[in-house]
Design a protein that fits this description.
The complex is a heterodimer.
Chain A: E1 2-13, E2 16-27, E3 31-35, H1 42-50, E4 57-62, E5 65-67, H2 70-74, E6 76-79, H3 91-101, H4 108-117, H5 133-145, E7 151-155, H6 163-174, E8 182-187, H7 190-196, E9 199-204, E10 207-213
Parallel strand pairs in A: 3-8, 3-9, 6-7, 7-8
Antiparallel strand pairs in A: 1-2, 1-4, 4-5, 9-10
Chain B: H1 13-26, H2 28-49, H3 55-88, H4 90-95, H5 101-130, H6 140-164, H7 168-185, H8 197-204, H9 207-219, H10 226-249
Helix pairs in contact in B: 1-5, 2-3, 2-5, 3-5, 3-6, 3-7, 3-9, 6-9, 6-10, 9-10
The chains are: A alpha/beta, B mainly alpha.
Chain lengths: 225, 255
């Protein structure tokens, strides 16, 4: 089942071409990686998928819905590079906010279970601006997953994390795909792409330079949470 | 960990309002400019009036307090918080979910209006209960109309500033300067009659001067005159201009 369809995507700011004729599809159960150096256009492709960037040409369809639209965004879970949440809200309140946005009503037990599952229960009263990088990333993943989206997109999900937090996030990402869900992530670290992705698109100067399928490398040993 | 497929509904506007209200009540700037500053002005006004205190003086002090509170809230409580959250990427993350920028704006305005109503209620309660000001001289309908128009001037002034200035630091500095200028124009530091003619004419068309004039007129000391309608229309024009520019050019994502 096709979850994401990017067709002849072209993004241009003024005369500067950021993404040039990018075409690829992502199937359910797949982790698809966009690998490239900084400034090659990975985040712009992700922005177009997330509905933050309007393509100059071409189209993006998420689970059959044309982006950027509310219907497409309803099918998306998003983890941005700089995950920002309202500063004055606690972890619990941020989760409640996004629950409300997605129209979810969970009983307290379900909420507790969800927060525990993401390692957020003990920090549920912590204001979002006091979270560490790893805690912030876990919260971002929890928000991206809560409404059971068809596609989860992640922009450099482990940038700035220490080794333990990175390994922890990697194991979470490996568990994300399902028979009805796909994952797209960007990274500039080849090892990360090899560990997480089933297929990798190498981006150079805004173009898809190569598209290759790989078998995932094993996860490194985790030093503990 | 398993996650069952939830029932999907349209984006819930109330969830945004609830979250923004929580953030607003915990924001130091929000509390300071919507409650503490107007109350301080009322206290100082009543203290300085001393034995000359009267209902009229109390209401004029309340009008100045509300006016100053509204402009401070619009410039700092709203504009700076909005710019700060935009700079952090709070709105960009929200826009990846099924909410629209219109819903975010409306939710923000609703929350600011809750703050304005609270501010008004507290100031009015203080002058009526604390300082025994009589309701007899108040045109309540006109007062509410003035409050509604002035509130929107201050909020869209803040929104306009965020539209034309992307940097939080620059915005904060400009907001401070503007507030100082507005306080001058309100006659806080020097009576307007003591100003050079050119500055006086300039101050006459500034929103803060227009609003304080119509606030005082709604109290009824000299009655509501035709010129007060002109001043009120002037304020409405400010709302239209600030709102028009903001709605067309405001960006919710960081620079």
């Amino acid at each position: 089942m096709t979850i994401l369809e990017v067709s002849h995507l072209h993004i241009q700011y003024g005369r500067r071409v950021i993404v040039d004729d990018a075409t690829f599809v992502v199937q359910a159960g797949e982790v698809f990686g966009l690998l490239g150096a900084n400034g090659t256009g990975k985040s712009s492709i992700l922005g177009a998928i997330a509905g933050l960037v309007v393509p100059t040409q071409g189209s993006v369809r998420v689970a059959g819905r044309l982006a950027p639209s509310v219907a497409a965004r309803n099918q998306l879970g998003v983890v941005l590079q700089d995950n920002a949440f309202p500063r004055e809200l606690t972890v619990y309140e941020v989760v409640r906010l996004y629950q409300g946005i997605y129209g979810l009503r969970w009983p307290p037990d379900r909420m507790r279970q969800y927060l525990q599952g993401w390692g957020l229960f003990d920090i549920r009263g912590t204001r979002s601006h006091n979270l560490s990088g790893g805690q912030r990333q876990r919260l971002a993943l929890a928000l991206a997953w809560m409404h059971d989206p068809a596609l989860i997109v992640m922009d450099e999900p482990t940038t700035g994390l220490d080794v333990d937090s990175r390994t922890q996030v990697w194991s979470r990402i490996r568990a994300l795909p399902s028979s009805s869900r796909g994952v797209v992530l960007t990274t500039h670290v080849e090892a990360e792409a090899e560990t997480l992705c089933d297929r990798i698109a190498v981006i150079r100067n805004g173009r898809l330079a190569a598209l290759e399928a790989r078998s995932r490398a094993p996860l490194p040993q985790q030093g503990g949470l | 960990m398993s996650n069952t497929v939830p029932t999907r509904r349209p984006a819930n506007f109330m969830a945004l309002v609830r979250a923004f209200v929580t953030a607003y009540t915990r924001s130091f700037r929000g509390t300071l400019f919507s409650l503490a500053l107007p109350l301080l002005i009322v206290f100082i006004g009543e203290l300085s009036a001393g034995s000359h205190a009267s209902s009229l003086n109390s209401w004029i002090t309340a009008a100045i307090a509300l006016n100053t509170g509204l402009f401070s809230q619009g410039l700092f409580g709203y504009a700076v918080d909005l710019a700060h959250d935009r700079d952090l990427g709070v709105y960009r993350r929200l826009l990846c979910s099924p909410v629209t920028s219109g819903q975010i704006l409306l939710a923000q305005l609703v929350v600011q209006w809750i703050g304005i109503v609270m501010q008004t209620a507290v100031v009015v309660a203080l002058v009526t209960v604390g300082y025994h000001a009589s309701w007899a001289m108040i045109h309540a309908g006109l007062g509410l109309l003035v409050l509604f128009v002035t509130g929107n001037v201050t909020l869209f002034l803040g929104q306009w500033l965020c539209t034309i200035i992307r940097s939080v630091r620059t915005l904060t500095a400009v907001a401070r300067l503007l507030l100082l200028g507005l306080l001058f124009a309100e006659g806080f530091f020097l009576r307007l009659s003591q100003w050079p003619t050119l500055f006086r004419h300039l101050a006459d068309v500034l929103p803060v001067h227009l609003s304080v004039t119509v606030f005082e007129a709604s109290i009824g000391s000299a009655g509501w005159a035709a010129s007060d309608w002109h001043d009120l229309l002037g304020l409405v024009a400010y709302v239209v201009v600030f709102a028009g520019i903001s709605l067309k050019f405001f960006r919710w994502t960081p620079a």
